[in-house]
Structures are given as structure tokens and as C-alpha cells.
Amino acid sequence: MTITGDPIIKDGCLMVRGKVVLTRMPENVVITSASSGSAFLGAKSTTSGSHHVFNLGVLEDYKFLCLFIVKIWWMIPRVGKSGSEVPMETQMLLLEAGEESAVLDEEPSADPAAENKFYILLLPVLEGPFRSSLQGTSSNELQFCVESGDPDVQTSLSYEAVFVNSGDNPYELMKDSIKILEKHKGTFSHIENKKIPAHLDWFGWCTWDAFYKEVNPAGIKAGLQSFLEGGCSPKFLIIDDGWQDAVNEFQKEGEPLIEETQFATRLADIKENSKFKSLESDGLCTNLKELVDTIKQKYGLKYVYMWHALAGYWGGVLPTSETLKKYNPKIVYPVQSPGNLGNIRDIALDSLEKYGVGVIDPQKIYDFYNDLHRYLASCGVDGVKVDVQNLIETLGSGFG
Hints:
By secondary structure, this protein is an alpha+beta fold. The protein is built from seven helices and 21 strands.
């Protein structure tokens, strides 16, 4: 028999389906009912701040799977059995539990498959301008961290930081939970309610592993020709990093690259660089538009996408660029979350913390993207691959 009902806090314990999940919960932890047997965990603080770490209680003797941000760009899984094994920046925690039976057998079943197992999901979520994550301590305490990324955006309480739900099937549990949050938050859509991009029906090729930043029209054509000759022509192409007009201000002409400054390279123009403007021996492809038109016609490409970073380039945009001055860029220095620094540091962020990022005036963001994407569309480009997204979370100071 399944014991149902909303998650509750009883006698200092978090109870889910009659099962004790967390013990020794502090009195400042609050629980708010959501829907369909789910709830939110939060906490109150005596002080206001932009960054809080709250204890939720002790987690022990639960097999779990979690997903955590091992490096600011990357998320990986980990398994464990106690709170001490939950890493910083955990974005999802899935517990396996044995359900209490209403009638106890005189002799326990020898068949493990006969046990009544169910799954408990703890999912850190966004709450207004604050993001949440989970982490464990050496004493098996499970904590949650809430932070705004801007010292001026503060709070003393968080009511909906961690979503809690349970179910008999872990896959259905995940899907149902996201649907509940979709309805409750109203800020995103479940995948079932999104339009599937047309290119997913086709085999495609991304230029990154073939060329890295040395990508050029001749190489793109050679690659597409090799696919054609092999009888496996892609129907969509991603022209990755290396097509943009970017400048490394820290490398003087004729001198070697200063280590780590490659990540501080900044966008100088929304149009393509000189590699994509040179006249080729065949007299074709003197610019990006002619390249896109040519390869679509010759190789049967349905879609061509272009790479760009969310801030324009790895180091943002170049404040001294005459063509980009209208977006009022300025140099800002990233500030990483303690959670980011608690796992594996990344050379790119270390570099940008030293050299800064050319950040576009928030009031000009629409104009920048509208100009960039309008230009790409005029060249026959069908979409973009957006990279370096997590950089933005380190640039919140002063921007709310």
C-alpha cells in the first residue's frame, strides 16, 4: 500500500510518503505546499544578504544520483549514500527510498524486486532574482545556497528554493515535476509544449573539431565535399568559433601570445572577419553571404548556423571599436560564486577575472542582438549556436 500526501516537516524531520528523508532540521526551515503531493523548501535568516547558505537537515542512508556543476561550463553526475557526498553546485538530487508497508510480513521477502521502492526529487529552482543549489557537509548535513549574483539584491527569506516531489518511476517523476513547475512559475515551457527545431530531423556537421578557430571557407568546402564523396552529406552546418572579427588587445604584432589572454579576446564587429571576405581562386565567396548561398546550392544544405558567445565573444565586445561604440560597452570584471570556486576552477574565467569582459549596456542589448541576427539573416544564415552562457552569471554586480 502506498502512503501518499504532501511532504511535511514533523518532529524536526522531513517526511515524504511517511518516510523520514531529513533529520535534525533547523527551526528556520519552512515548507510550502505546491500541488499533486509536492512542496517547496525554504528558510528564513536573521540578516539580509545576496548570498545565503541554509542547513536543511541530515541526509543519511539514501542511495542517490545527483547532477552538479563540476566546472562553471559543465555538469556531470555523481552517486552516493549520504549528505557528505553531495557536491557544491548540485542542481538535481534524486533519492531512492523503500516505502513503508501498511502490513508488515512476518518474514521479509528475499526478492529485492518485490520491495516497494519509490523516488524523491529535490530540485533547486529559481525564485525571483535568486538561484538555488544544493551541497553537503562532512557531517552529512544537506544545505541549500541561494544567491542573486549582485551584492545590492538582497533577501532574508526564501520560500521556494528547493522543489520536493516523489513518484514510483524516476523518469515520470522528472517529467511530472517539470510540468508542475511550468504551471507554478509561468516562466518557461516543458519540452512537450515547445516547437521541435526542424534541423533535428537531419544529420549535421559542426566545424569545431575539424578546424577549431582556424575555420575558413576553403576548409568548409573541403569538408562538405568529403561528406558528399563519402555518400553522407549533412543537411545542416554549424560554422563554429573562428568566423567573427575579434581582437586580442594584449598581443602585440610580431610578439607571441600572452598566456591566457586568448579568452580575453573581444568582438570588434558584428560582421565576418577577413578570412571570410577574401577573394578565392574560383572567384566565389567574397563574403559570408556568398559562402552560405554557394554551399547551400552545391551541397544541398537546408540550414546554416553560426556560433557566437552570449556576450558577443569570450571577452565580450571591444569598447574602443568604432562600430560597436553605439552599444555603450564597458569593461566589467567577473565575480564567481563560492560554489563555482568550490569545485574545479576554469582557466577561461581566471583569465577574464584578470583582464575583464566588454559588457554591452543592458539598455542596448536588444539593439545589439537585433543588429547581429539581422545581419546574419541577410547572409542566408538560419540560426545561431550560442555559447559561453554561464559567463553572464558572474557579471551581475550592479545589474540586478
